[in-house]
Every structure is written in structure tokens, then in C-alpha cells.
Fold:
Amino acid sequence: MYVRIGNLEILDSYMSSIELGDTVSVEALIRNPLDWHHFYENLASIKPGSATHFIVVTSGGERVAGIGNIAEIDKWSNKGQFGFKIKLRTNKRKSARTKRAQLQTSGLQKKTLEHSIEIAAR
Structure:
């Protein structure tokens, strides 16, 4: 799994949950204070309401990319563990699965057209 929201990259080892839908929600848990410092600097530059690009790669291999508005950013610390959650309202989004379906449909239409031409030629 992998998520990129603007300049912030979150790898699988940090993520605790991802939700995809009309909103994209990413929650991460960071155990190392040095890593937290890096994430905190990047999170401070993200402002709620701002538009940003995002890319999500799920554990199943699906890749979803698009543009959305930051809805909410929560940061917390609890006994030496740090975490954050980002919610993003999607405006435009495309997935690789959608592109494959469109290609298969256009290929099927092309085969049907070729078959119709063969029948007409007989």
C-alpha cells in the first residue's frame, strides 16, 4: 500500500487504515520520533480546504489517482506513539481498473465492427 497526498508520501509500514469512496481517508501510526518530525513538517504545510493531487495504491494493487480538497487533518501523540489522519473530498478521480474496462470495451467494439464488415463483404 502507498499513499501520496501533495508532497506527503506514506508507505505501508506507517499506515493503519485507508478508506476509498467519495472521501479518501488515510490514518497512519508513527513509532519513531524522528519520523514523526518529518511527517509533522509536511502536515503543517497542508491546509484544510486546499486542493491537492493524490495517489492511492491499495494492497490489492489498484491504483487510484485524482484531485481533492483537504477536509480534515488530525494529529495526536500517545505515550511515545504519534499518528495522524487525513480526510480528502475527491473532485476528480481515476483508477487503473476504469481505464482497463474502457480499453476492453473499445476492443470489443472494434471486433464487432470488423465482424460486421466481414459479413457485409460476403
